[in-house]
Amino acid sequence: MSYLEVDINGKALFKYGRHRICVLRCCEEWCSPEKKAERRTREYHSLHFIIGGKGTLIYECGGERREVVLQKGDSFLLFAGQKYEYYPDSARPWGYDWIDFTGENVDDLFSACGYDADTPFIRIRHFDRMRSLLGDLIDAYDVSDVQNLRCSGYFLILLSYLIDDMRRSLNANEESGSKKYARLRNVLIYINNNYRRELSVDTVAVDACVSPDYLKHLFSDFLGMPLTEYLNRFRIASACEIFQKSGAMSIEEVAAEVGYNDPKYFARVFKKIKGVSASDYRRACADDDPFAWLKERNIDYR
User: Fold this and answer.
1) Phi, psi (5° rounding) for residue 131?
2) What is the rounded distance in angstroms from the CA atom of residue 278 to the CA atom of residue 274?
3) Residue 176 domain-assigned?
4) What torsion do the CA atoms of 116, 117, 118, 120 make, to the nearest 10 degrees?
5) Number of folded domains in the chain?
6) Domain co-membership, 119 together with 212
7) What CA–CA distance (Å, rounded) separates 252 from 220?
8) Rounded Cα–Cα distance for residues 277 and 177 (Å)
9) Taking 60 as the threshold, does the pLDDT of residue 13 lie above it?
10) What is the Cα–Cα distance from 237 to 12, expressed in whole angstroms?
């Protein structure tokens, strides 16, 4: 067995600078609907790319048996030494390209591609590009004098495509997250300017041009609370700021100033959120930061 040893300069991605890889065999296979389940613990790694149909992969995670249905565009990695079971769908049996290989210091390569022992499968975004390269790799497995060199070269390019695909997916998710945050920030600024009004999820959603369900998800994902709770917290924090800045306004006037027409309801909400009554807070509020609960979430709310 001959290894291809390569140096990879990618400190942000890899723990090791040197990796050893050897492609053992590769092939394309279309499974029969009657094909029995494969049950193996291999001494080598085996990478599969589903090119049609679908099937089921069964693996263990934390001592629990897990089962996932995979189809065209998915890939799964069978780690050496791990138990796996997989079989084709009886109605639409899968076909896949597979590559058996051994390697040293390759766990970080797998991780950069998106595979790990707890989730040994990924969805490939740019599968057509991957499919073409897989064809070249399988064609290079031709028992020629340069087979190992050529197959290993194609395999390294394949891994680079997988890593690039994964990083593009992560960047897309980050971009999506940033867009959601920008949307949330606009909603928070809207609330900051209108919290004295009678607001609800529906009214805020209409003015923010989003659906009520989407608005609920924004507050749950970024703030961990519903909009109604946020609105109460913001109103009470605003009341605390008034208490800190002025002693001239009565508690009833402060309640009305921050959007509570019922002073008794304001008193109940204030004590629930701050743990003390409004009058007790006014007497001992000098060191309190009313918006600490929001600042600790790193939310730009003004």
Assistant:
1) -65, -40
2) 9
3) no
4) 60
5) 2
6) no
7) 32
8) 39
9) no
10) 42
